[in-house]
Amino acid sequence: MITVLIDGFGCYLFIINIFGFILFAVNTWLYSHTQDKQIDMVLNIISLLGGSLGIISGILIIDRKARKNNMMSRVFVVCVLIIQIIVFLMFKGMHQEKISFAFWEFFGQHKLLSIYLVIINIVTFIAFGIDKLKAVSHKYRIRIITLLGLAFAGGSAGGMLGMYVFRHKINKDYFTIGIPLIILMQAVVVFFLMNLK
Q1: pLDDT tens for residues 104-154?
Q2: What's the pLDDT tens digit per position in 49-67?
Q3: Could you tell me which residues come within 8 angstroms of residue 144 by beta carbon, excluding any fewer than 6 positions away?
Q4: Phi, psi of 96, deg, nearest 5
Q5: CB 31 within 8 A of CB 69
Q6: How far is residue 26's CA from residue 133's CA, in Å, rounded to a whole number?
Q7: How distant is the alpha carbon of residue 111 from its chain centre?
Q8: How many Cα atoms are found within 13 Å in the side-chain-facing hemisphere of 95?
């Protein structure tokens, strides 16, 4: 019975990821050949249903170029994929018998990780400040992908703080929604690492 469920779930994941890949290809074609005919919301729903790996495969194979109009969708899909992988690993039993929520204790035991996170958050905060100064003086800006990359690399709290302290990027959904989503994804990753067998 369990083998049948696993096989059925594996088949479902295969089909939903193929569908996600095809939908991403159609979406890319719509972006390049029509005006305002995207299906990003449908892609986000397919991602939530388990098709995020297919969509990311489409991004890597078909359209690697990140642009402002597709940035939020990409941030969403990557975060969802990482969370789904962790949930899958938790269901597969790759966690300790007793689940722990002692985040401070975990960071106390992993001082190098804590130091890294402090440094990357300071760097990200400063990067948001520099980008704001460059925006005000109409100079060459720090790329969006760099700012989001710093957030993905562990600097999401510094990015969030920089957004609101410098009042910078607060009207861009890939930052106002994307950075909290990255923080959530990183909290799930840390939770998983804390409870890994």
Answers
A1: 888 888 899 999 999 999 999 999 999 988 888 888 888 888 999 999 999
A2: 999 999 999 988 987 776 7
A3: 66, 68, 71, 174
A4: -70, 160
A5: yes
A6: 39
A7: 25
A8: 21
